[in-house]
Each structure stands twice: as C-alpha cells, then as structure tokens.
Design brief:
It comes from Salinisphaera dokdonensis CL-ES53. This protein has 358 residues and is of the alpha/beta class. It contains 13 helices and 14 strands. Helices cover 40% and strands 17% of the residues. Helix 3 runs parallel beside helix 7, helix 9 packs across helix 13 and helix 10 crosses helix 11.
Amino acid sequence: MNAKSLKRWIKHQRRNNRGRLNRLLTRLLGTTEPRRRPLVGDTRRVLVVRLNKRLGNILFLTPMLRTLAASLPAATIDVVIQDARQKPLLETLPGIGRVWVHEKSFGATLKLLRQLRARRYDLAIDPSGNSASNRLALALSKARQRMGFATANQWVPLSHAASRPGSRHQAKQAVELLESGVTETEWQRFNTLAVFPGAEAERSAQQHWDRAFRELTSPSPVVAFFTQATGNKQLDDDWWADFLEQVAEKLPEAHLLQICPPGAPTPTSMASVCIAELDVLAATLSRADAFVAADSGPMHLAAAAGVPVAGLFKATNPAAYAPLGPGCVSLAGETLTPEHTVEAVRGMLSKQPNRGAA
C-alpha cells in the first residue's frame, strides 16, 4: 500500500468510526423525534451556534435572529461564529448582545467554551442540523434548554426539537425551527436577509462610492455586478462579456459598477470597488439600484443590504439558496442567459426611483 492509498484508508476508517460513534450516542442520548414544548418563562439569555465561515450561511441566520429579537424582546441574543470579518454584520442587528468568534486552536477553544458556559445561557440553538461542530458546541454550552433538528443522527439531547421543515431554503429552515420547536410563543416572523451597517461603515462606503463615480454628474441608475463564484457556480468570461454588451445596448442610461474581490486588480474600463470590510461592502451595495451575481456571498450580502438582486444559478438550487430580499429574482436553466438577466434588471429599475445617483 503506497502513501496515498494509506492516507485514503485512514480517512475512510476515521469516517466509519465517527459514524459508529454518532449512531451509538444517538441511541443512548439522542433526539430522533420532535419535541415541541413552551420555553422556560425566564428565557432571557439566548445563544445561536453557527460554526461556519461561508458568508451566505452566516447571512442566512439574520431572519431567525430578527425573529428571536422581535418575539422575545426581553432576551439578549449572542452568536458564535468562525470568521471575525462577519462579526460587524451581526453586531448591529436588533437584540444582539455579543458575537463570539471561535478561533481554531485547542487553547482558544477551551477559553471560549469556558466563557460560554460562564454565561449560563437559558437557550442554545443549532439552526443548521448538519454540523458536527454545532452539535458539539450545543452539547457543551451548559444551556438550560437546547434546540435543534430531530434527525436519525441527532446525538445531542434536545429540549426543543423540530423535524426537518418543508421549506428547502436554508434561511427559512432556521425560522421554521423556532415555530416547530416551541409552543405558546407568538413568533413575529422575518423571511428576508438583513444587515444594518453602522455609521462608520456608511461614511466609508460613501467615500468608495464617490471615488468610483467621481465623473458622474447626473442622476443615473447604477447596476452593480460580481463575476466571481466558487467551483462550477461561476459563469465564464464570454457570458459576462455578452451581459455587458447587452446592458450597454438595452440600458444605455445605466452606469455599471464592478465589485472586485479584495486584492484583485481593478478594471480601468468602468467604475469598480474592491472592499475587504463586509459591513462597508454592504453599505456600498445598498447604494446601487440593482445587483447581478452568481450564487455567492456577495449575492446574499446585496440582498441583505436591500438591493434588488438577479441571482444566477448555474449549479446550485435556487429553492435552497435564492437571494432573499425585496425585488430579488433567481435565474436558472433556460432563463440563465444574458438576455433574460438584462430584462430582469430592466424590470428592477422600472419599479423603483433611482437610489444610486452619485
């Protein structure tokens, strides 16, 4: 057996061992059936666990966080995540107390665990149902009540458990977890993503906007776009070239703004911005009149910022990952063409007064 085969065999054995341990713990302790009951009356300290670095997955928390804040106004809601860059996006949401960031080292993990346990949370929530890290944090949180999804692999003993909801969208599932796992609470439901950049982020965004459009002298609609995506979600250069040609032909009054990844070279043929701070990027996107992107973090960030988004779905399912925001549309299959996309943008611009004038 060569080194590559040995590595594959070890990985396979680890996966099998984890599976066996998971099944054993589920039989002994787990929650495989729904448990719907009221919250303890003095539920005031809530922890939401989402140990994932993908921007979209963190933004998918925002409808549930807003639902919690509106429905439990006396509660303080803390969140634990993995990427410090995403922290400003959650800190300004209503009802949010502290956003903890999990650093991947043994010492940092122990320190964070001690801090979380010291808070003595009344309720801890795993909104995803498919993360071993989330489950472990939930089990170790020392919360009086624990909420999550009841599945054949749910080895955490939960006080409140819901079966997998009918909605396939990741953000809506988290809201449905609250409704299905708790009785005697009237949930004020939110179904769209949302972020609320602070004053400093807004000032910085205005500076980026002014630099990008320093030569724009008359009010004009601004169509922002982002060409990048991971793996086979990305559309090729020819698709984007055709899209830009059609915008120039069919929407000659519109100004284009290209959103570039931080550190990438900026194009000289049109206005562009490269912004690393996510709250500043959200505030900048909010000034646009429409946004076009493949399924990606910036697509969801634009929807959360309140921009009508044309989401382009080449590989992923819009039923699970559509941009959730006012005026957003998803294009897939036969509609995933530059022609349909430009028509979608035209419809967006026709339904709103110009918000993106420099």
